[in-house]
Amino acid sequence: VFHTAGGREVRDGGGIKPDVEIKPELMSNFAFVLERENIFFDYSTKYCYEHRDNRPETGKGHFLTDADMDDFDQFVRTHLRDTVVQVLKLDVDHDLDSLRSELREQLEEDLALRFDYQQGAIQQALLKDKWSQEAAAVLADKKRYQEILKPVVADKKQSKKNKSKKTKK
Q1: What is the distance between the alpha carbons of residues 75 and 92, in angstroms, rounded to a whole number?
Q2: What are phi and psi of 4, to 5 degrees?
Q3: Residues 154, 4: Cα–Cα separation, whole Å
Q4: Residue 152 CB neighbour total at 10 angstroms
């Protein structure tokens, strides 16, 4: 274990522990299957063609309507291969209903990429990005920000140990 000049602990091979820890959200198995089977891609192609003259504004929040999501649900039911459903024992109706929010976010990100390329996909993804949201919250809270930046007081033995290492070099 090493310590930075500010007293933060650094573990050999482990790096510095983040000041704010955020657990990543993993893609559900059902969304993974839809991605793997190109359902998002195929529906995005269909949606872009149907909305080429009346395209949505991406990067500002949710833009798919409930009617759009109902259309997506129907698309999944008709395009997801029966063998995939049977082998993986998927409950398509249940998953479409319970995972609607996750599926909407994934689909909107794919559509933003189609309509506005990389910039659109990034803007759409940042709307749900927990790390960016937490960083903005820390920066907006001056007291919390100062508390995070405040040097950690290391114990005296560790401080002396680090100083003696510096003088030997």
Answers
A1: 12
A2: -75, 175
A3: 10
A4: 10
Query: Which residues are CB-neighbours of 112 under 8 A, at least 6 positions away?
Result: 58, 59, 120, 121, 123, 124
Query: pLDDT-based confidence at 160, cuts 50/70/90?
Result: low
Spell out the long-range contacts of 135-138 with Cβ–Cβ below 8 A and sequence spacing 24 or more: 138/20
Distance CA 153, CA 7 (A): 6
Q: Compute the distance between CA of residue 19 and CA of residue 37 in angstroms, rounded to an integer.
A: 39
Q: Do 33 and 88 touch, CB atoms closer than 8 A?
A: yes
Q: For the whole prediction, is pTM greater than 0.85?
A: no
Q: DSSP alpha helices (H): ranges in 51-155?
A: 66-79, 82-88, 92-98, 100-126, 130-140, 142-149
Is residue 76 a contact partner of residue 96, using CB atoms and an 8 Å limit?
A: yes
